[in-house]
Amino acid sequence: MIGAGICGLSAALWLRRAGQAVTLIDREGPGAGASFGNAGILAQWAVVPVNAPGLLRQGLGYMADPDSPLFLRWRHLPHLAPWLMRFAARANDRDTRATARALLPLIGDSLEQHRALARGTVAEKWLASSEIGFAYPGRADYAADSYGWTLKRDAGFEPEVIEGPAVQEAEPALGPEIGCLALMKGHGHILDPGAYMADLARALEAEGGRVLRAEARDIVLEDGRVTRVETDAGPLPCAAAVLAAGIWSGPIARKLGLAVPMVAERGYHLHFTGARPLPRRPLMITRGKFGATPMADGLRCAGLVELGGLDPRPSPRPLKVLRRHAARAFPGLAHEGAREWMGMRPSTADSLPVVGEIGRTGVHAAFGHQHVGLTAGPKTGRLVADMIAGRRPNLDMAPYAPARFGRGRPGD
Ligand SMILES: Cc1cc2nc3c(=O)[nH]c(=O)nc-3n(C[C@H](O)[C@H](O)[C@H](O)COP(=O)(O)OP(=O)(O)OC[C@H]3O[C@@H](n4cnc5c(N)ncnc54)[C@H](O)[C@@H]3O)c2cc1C
Q: Any idea what DSSP says for residue 171?
């Protein structure tokens, strides 16, 4: 199992529970990637991909907005262009609805999936049941989001919309800039995603799995089937492997003949420690395109999108913009300090993850979950474990099939 983010940890736990011997490796230890610093929201409703109708109009609008939540590091444009073209080509009603239909089974029961994953383990304490609130400046802004809400309603998610003074009565932490709140019950969030990952790794060890700090360098096939993973800590013989290395899965998959159009949608967080007053529930601050989540040790504001490669250094501008948006949404917020973080969402051009066996190599993909990896990880892990254990998943896997991006040569 390569990569101890939410996808690798979930697959490892379910595979172990299916009676398999499991070794999970991560070059930095569990929860080092996007799974560490996300907004912690189990976004069961998030069936609408970023590349929905209106994408181009919205993108152009952002270019003229000094507080835009979208950033582009221009020197990366030549590398990004082919992905951007494929991504934008799907920003139509037909493809968006198809994506929404395919995402729902992976995310729609996320809270239950996390509960099943963590039940009875040390990780269980990080799960919280909550409402989710979408915070808009006013009713007109909510109405402007009607396309997305139609698709959410079609998926079974109906909001209760409140306006005016009722907004601050329901959510006293919000300032006067927010005049409309769309609330949905029956959701959940993670109180500390980094600690949750570390505890899921502990749970795996407690259940007899092995967790190693090692970097996968290559996956070796013999007669078309995986026989070992080469790592900087030596070879790991195996009969099956799972590639769950988030954005870093791409180059390894390419060696197996799978060219996934995937880029890093870089995202940022500001984590206000000791913050008061905390919002009562996770909130999506729609104008700034970030989630604001009450966590174990403060308020985490996480989101934005920066297109611009795998450079691990954060850019200063998105953090400044996020700080301004957070100050406007929560003008009365007192805190002890603000931790800054940047992470990379693994985003495919069709906004669907890559889950399933690569050809007939015995190597299974479990990556590419873009904005909803924390939400979809446990279900993804279950599906992968089912496939490796020889159980047929009770779900049409075709939308996630690696084969949509090429054959899993050699060995196909
Ligand atoms: C700002 C932000 C906010 C977000 N908010 C949410 C949210 O609220 N809800 C939600 O559902 N999703 C959210 N996401 C998306 C979510 O975080 C990701 O989709 C998810 O974490 C991806 O998980 P993963 O396991 O695929 O990858 P990762 O968590 O990135 O894990 C990959 C792991 O692989 C390891 N690795 C890489 N290469 C190798 C190698 N060669 N050998 C060994 N190990 C290797 C890395 O060290 C890393 O630990 C957010 C993302 C960002 C950036």
A: -
